[in-house]
UniProtKB/TrEMBL annotation:
Origin organism lineage: Bacteria, Pseudomonadati, Pseudomonadota, Alphaproteobacteria, Hyphomicrobiales
Keyword Zinc: no
Record-linked InterPro entries: FAD-bd_FR_type (IPR017927), Flavodoxin/NO_synth (IPR008254), Flavoprot_Pyr_Nucl_cyt_Rdtase (IPR001709), Flavoprotein-like_sf (IPR029039), FNR_nucleotide-bd (IPR039261), OxRdtase_FAD/NAD-bd (IPR001433), PepSY-ass_TM (IPR005625), Riboflavin_synthase-like_b-brl (IPR017938)
Domain Flavodoxin-like: 332-465
Protein name (Swiss-Prot/TrEMBL): NADPH--hemoprotein reductase
Spans through the membrane: 122-147, 168-188, 286-312
Residue runs in coiled coils: none
Top-tier EC class: oxidoreductase
Chain ranges of the FAD-binding FR-type domain: 481-597
Pfam family, one: Flavodoxin_1
Species in which this protein is naturally found: Xanthobacter tagetidis
Length: 735
């Protein structure tokens, strides 16, 4: 619901909001420019000083005004010459005619009314209301993603569009909420929706004496010029008329002959409120605030653009479920818990495969769980996890609704998550536990899919097929990737002597026959993933992509991966057999969570075997020479020391600060990488104390051993790995 409120209206209004916001940004600079340009008002100057000096030059002066834009002006009609003049507050001297530039008038009109008069003013008010709604709902959505209001300032993970949208959104939200609230208040004033200002009732008789020189009037002498709003002069033709002096405090009537204050009407609360609201909206008289509000407004078009990207992606990711049998008639119900919609893609694949196998399948969002779903013989739950192990968007109400429903279908729960989060697939676990606690028989134990792995999903499908008594081949490609043809440019083979062949493979785009040089590579960074689609295997019919961590970035001019040959592995066998010049079909999948944090803080890189790939890429990219400490484990220094020469060179060039290797099959001092970590505990503790980020890449067993070795390293610092993980200081790329 919240997402629907935020998404579509945001897209629909993006253009109008961008116009209002950008014109607001332009206007917001005005108070700062005026602050610089307008002459300063001396602290000691009184209203009488300036009024006296102006009256001396302009006998027909009718009003002196200290305007919200900071300029002091006088309106006069000296028998024929009329005008409004800017006044030097220090001397009362004229500084030339006062005029608002056509450009400012145009932009103000654009900002307030889209250049369309009253209809435009209504549209601007609706825009302000929409901006308020978008800012508040955006903050709530972000809080939910990050694990609650208290977590709002945590690092934001996700795709670049997600990160930009979140980072800029939370920066701008307070300013946008303030601007839209105050804008709404001002619109209400424009449309007469606020109570009218009480009419002044000066049933006051002036003394009627001969007017004294204005510079000598005591009531004008006692008011500082900087407190002035407006001083209106009496009509010279009317001896009973008086001066009207308006300040922030109120309005006083001053006798033109005696200078006495005849009446003082304090400013009504509403008027003070109006003043405050105007200052908060325009930044007039508060130019720093003005600039901050302008900056927040300037982010609106970027938020609109990134929002559009996110919305389109989410739409594209949500498949149309074909042949969705009504829930009551279904033998199998699939419930989906998703936020980014990718889980819907998996659900679509599962739905189609089950339907093809003859099942009557109904698919729905977990939030919509009903008695009909729970009455089905079989319930399959596919659930992602967000925030601190919380439910995704389409499953937030599932557990509370489930508790109120009858029914005990046989269930299988499949969690979708990311191992680098401290609560891997936690929500799916909670769902499985809740279904278990109510006594639903289990079709399969709960399983978890890491980073949308098509292989893990296919394996689960295979297991489910076993239980259902038929084959269930789940071939899911999250978004049919657009592949690029790449050609093998070079290969180095390691580890054959120790039974663990690993190849470093370098690809370039095929040579362009016209230029004779390789074409451009797609954009990627070390640590991103390359999906490689192996040739279709006749027996398995399998053309699912396999993912490898990238050891290079586009800047290096090659796409480099380390591939361990796995017995029976379709893709690794294909890649190891590849000859220079032969091609692959590949696509890039960003992996923004597995990157060195920005800055110059130390990095601790830990890996084993082919896991060195992205770590070597991070070292290679470290031209700035930040401290980087690499721990790596292989089998034998003589056989599988990947990147040996390159790392030696990086050490010499200070791209790499220290290198600790461990070889498990070497006779003298065989060891694993976790042994090196344990032995180096004091040094590593000191690095973590300095704010080091730890990046781990390699097999699951190695990663678990590394976790066990690191816990005692960080514990004396009052830290643990889940804490480091949640702040992005411990990131893993594990397979
Ligand atoms: C902001 C954010 C928070 C996440 N939190 C978790 C988490 O706590 N545990 C987890 O296992 N996965 C977490 N993930 C990973 C998602 O669950 C995973 O990418 C899932 O496949 C997304 O499915 P969906 O696109 O259907 O929402 C998070 C992802 C994002 C973007």
């Amino acid at each position: 619901m919240l997402r629907r409120l935020h998404g579509l209206p945001g897209i629909a209004l993006a253009l109008a909001l961008a116009v209002t916001a950008l014109s607001g940004t332009v206007l917001s600079v005005q108070p700062a420019l005026n602050h610089v340009a307008a002459p300063a008002i001396p602290a000691s100057a009184s209203v009488a000083d300036v009024a006296g000096a102006v009256a001396a030059r302009h006998p027909g002066v009718s009003a002196i005004r200290l305007r919200a834009d900071g300029s002091l002006t006088a309106a006069f009609d000296d028998g024929g010459t009329r005008g409004v003049e800017r006044i030097d507050p220090a001397t009362g001297a004229g500084l030339g005619p006062y005029a608002v530039s056509d450009t400012t008038r145009f932009i103000t009109n654009l900002h307030r009314a889209f250049l369309m008069g009253d209809a435009g003013r209504v549209a601007a008010a609706i825009g302000a209301l929409a901006m308020l709604g978008l800012s508040v709902s955006g903050l709530l959505l972000l809080a939910r993603r990050l694990g609650g209001m208290g977590a709002l300032l945590r690092p934001i993970r996700g795709t670049p569009a997600q990160r930009w949208h979140g980072e800029l959104g939370r920066l701008a939200a307070v300013g946008l909420i303030l601007s839209s609230l105050t804008g709404l208040w001002m619109s209400a004033g424009t449309f007469g929706l606020l109570p009218e200002k009480a009419a002044m009732t000066p049933a006051i008789a002036a003394s009627g004496g001969a007017p004294a020189p204005v510079g000598t009037l005591s009531s004008l002498n006692s008011v500082k010029l900087r407190d002035l709003r407006e001083l209106t002069f009496p009509d010279p033709a009317d001896p009973t008329d008086v001066f009207t002096l308006v300040t922030a405090d109120g309005e006083r009537l001053v006798d033109a002959a005696t200078g006495a204050t005849l009446a003082m009407t304090p400013a009504p609360a509403l008027e003070r409120m109006n003043d405050l609201v105007r200052t908060l909206h325009t930044g007039r008289g508060a130019w720093v605030l003005g600039l901050l509000l302008g900056l927040a407004s300037a982010m609106v078009p970027v938020l609109g653009g990134t929002g559009l990207v996110l919305w389109l992606r989410r739409r594209a990711a949500r498949p149309r479920i074909g042949a969705n049998v009504p829930a009551r008639a279904a033998d199998t119900v699939i419930l989906v818990g998703s936020e980014g919609n990718s889980t819907w893609g998996f659900a679509g694949t599962l739905h189609a495969a089950l339907a093809a196998a003859g099942h009557k399948v109904h698919t729905a969002a977990m939030n919509d769980v009903s008695a009909a779903h729970m009455a089905a013989p079989r319930l399959l739950v596919l659930a992602a996890t967000y925030g601190e192990g919380a439910a995704p968007q389409s499953a937030r109400h599932f557990l509370s609704r489930l508790a109120k429903l009858p029914g005990h279908p046989a269930v299988a729960v499949l969690g979708f998550g990311d191992r680098s989060f401290p609560h891997f697939c936690r929500f799916a676990r909670d769902v499985a536990d809740a279904l278990d606690a109510r006594g639903c028989p289990q079709l399969l134990p709960m399983k978890r899919v890491d980073r949308r792995s098509p292989q893990e999903f296919a394996q689960w499908g295979h297991d489910l097929g076993d239980v259902l008594g038929h084959d269930l081949v789940l071939t899911h490609v999250a978004e049919p990737p657009k592949t690029t043809r790449l050609a093998l440019a070079g290969r180095e083979l390691y580890g054959e002597a120790v039974g663990a062949p690993v190849a470093i493979l370098r690809f370039t785009a095929p040579v362009d026959p016209r230029t004779g040089a390789p074409g451009p590579l797609p954009a990627f960074e070390a640590g991103d993933l390359v999906g490689i689609v192996p040739p279709v295997n006749e027996k398995l019919g399998d053309a699912m992509p396999r993912f490898y961590s990238l050891a290079s970035s586009t800047r290096d001019g090659v796409l480099e991966i380390c591939v361990r040959l796995r017995a029976g592995g379709l893709c690794s066998t294909f890649l190891h057999a590849l000859q220079p010049g032969e091609g692959i079909d590949a696509f890039i999948r960003e992996n923004p969570t597995f990157r060195p944090a920005k800055g110059r803080g130390p990095l601790i890189l830990i890996g084993a075997g082919a896991g060195i790939g992205p770590l070597a890429g991070f070292v290679r990219a470290n031209a700035a020479g930040r401290p980087v400490h690499l721990y790596w484990g292989g089998r034998s220094a003589a056989s599988d020391f990947l990147y040996e020469h390159e790392l030696a060179q990086h050490l010499a060039e200070r791209r790499l600060t220290t290198l600790r290797t461990a070889f498990s099959r070497d006779a003298d001092g065989s060891a694993y990488v976790q042994d090196r970590i344990a032995a180096d505990a004091p040094r590593l503790r000191e690095l973590v104390k300095q704010g080091a980020q730890i990046l781990v890449c390699g097999g699951r067993d190695m990663a678990e051993a590394v976790t066990r070795a690191l816990e005692p390293v960080v514990r004396p610092l009052g830290l643990d790995l889940p804490t480091l993980k949640s702040s992005g200081r411990y990131v893993e790329d594990v397979y």
